[in-house]
Amino acid sequence: KLIVRLRKREELPADSKFRQKKYDAALSQSHMSDDEKELNAAGEFTGRYVSYTPLYRSAEAQEFFDAIDAVKDPMPSNKYIPRVKAAERVDVPPKIAKLLKNKTRRWMVDPEWLQKDENRQYDTEARIVDSGKAWGDDEDPEDRIERQKRVREEKKEI
């Protein structure tokens, strides 16, 4: 799914806002919607997957994925299994990630979802990090993490 979206993104019009670097963080495996096999009434696999969008996904992030998904794949694979978008969304939190590239950026999270009492517990750096300068933040998360590493190393030397 990720590889197909990467190819399709390159086919967006040159002036599309979704080609901007600030959207790159959404294109990691951890940010792809979960898919399940579609089964018919007899419980047999139909040959398609059903893609479930998480409730936490912001309108901007959904618009990004929708724009990419609307593009025809320039190199369709005969091994690719079609996916259909589920009507309902799933209420799952952003995934926990150790690597920054797999963490959910704040712009990708619906602020209303995050403000609900039952969801505030997910507003941790293990799941969600700031979006970065391109989104109006004072610094990029990469810079902050690098600074934190330097401080830890300096403390070890003391």
Q: What value does the Rg take, in angstroms?
A: 18 Å
Helix percent reads: 25-40%
What is the count of DSSP helices, taking H or I runs of 4+ residues?
A: 4
| Largest sheet, spatial ordering of strands | 1-2-3
**Care to count the β-strands?**
5
Strand proportion: 5-15%
Q: Could you tell me the mean pLDDT?
A: 92
Which structural class do you get from the secondary structure elements? alpha/beta
Largest sheet, in brief, is: 3 strands, mixed
N-to-C terminal Cα separation, in Å? 47 Å
What general outline do the C-alpha atoms trace? globular
pLDDT below 50 for ≥5 consecutive residues: which ranges?
none
SSE run: HEEHEEHEH
Q: What would you say this structure looks like, in words?
A:
With 158 residues, the chain is α/β, with parallel strands linked by helices. It is built from four helices and five strands. It has helices at 2-9, 59-69, 111-115, 141-157, and strands spanning 34-39, 45-52, 83-85, 104-105, 128-129. A hairpin with a 5-residue loop joins strand 1 (34-39) and strand 2 (45-52). The mean pLDDT is 92.
